[in-house]
């Protein structure tokens, strides 16, 4: 039991250290959380996607994917283009601000867009594969028979982080209730997305 707890704790700490960083996915979850729009769906998609990718890594799929570097390169190009486009939209919001924090009147269409954007942020980002499938997968392999316990801890860390980021962002609602504050947030999102997009395109 002690060995299992140690492996789970190690997986939790490792997973948390990899996802607690300013990135495309985190920036998107934060923005949705502040807007209080489709938060449960977005948090669920991020956590379940990470759990699936971690399971693939623990199961040894990462070693198989490495055999097709062209696929990783293609994901990098598509993901980089997507992040550049999303960053450009965020930059446009900075230059043409709205009326601050508004959640009322959100339609099913906008919720659908949020879900699709979240899926793209997750599955078109090569860094997600590097962290979850390759890195966590290789670290889990060192745990031998406790590799799945290690992976479970990492998946739990992902769930806790995205839940805290998405639902905890509501505390910033009053702070970001003005157009000026939203311009700052969108500016940070734009810089993050554009920088990551350029790095992905350049590295592919």
How does this structure look, described?
- By secondary structure, this protein is mainly α.
- About 80% of the residues lie in helices and about 0% in strands.
- The chain is built from 9 helices and no strands.
- The chain has helices at about 1-20, 25-35, 40-60, 60-65, 70-95, 110-125, 125-140, 145-170, 180-204.
- Helix 1 (about 1-20) runs antiparallel to helix 7, helix 2 packs antiparallel against helix 3 (about 40-60) and helix 2 crosses helix 8 (about 145-170).
- The termini are far apart.
What attributes characterize this protein structure?
204 residues, mainly alpha, 79% helix, globular
List the helices and strands and how they pair.
Elements: H1 2-19, H2 24-35, H3 39-58, H4 61-65, H5 69-95, H6 108-123, H7 126-141, H8 147-168, H9 179-203
Q: How is the biggest beta sheet arranged?
A: none
End-to-end Cα distance = 44 Å
Strand segment count: 0
Backbone shape? globular
Structural class: mainly alpha
Strand content: under 5%
Number of helices: 9
Radius of gyration: 18 Å
In short:
It is built from nine helices and no strands. The protein is mainly alpha-helical.
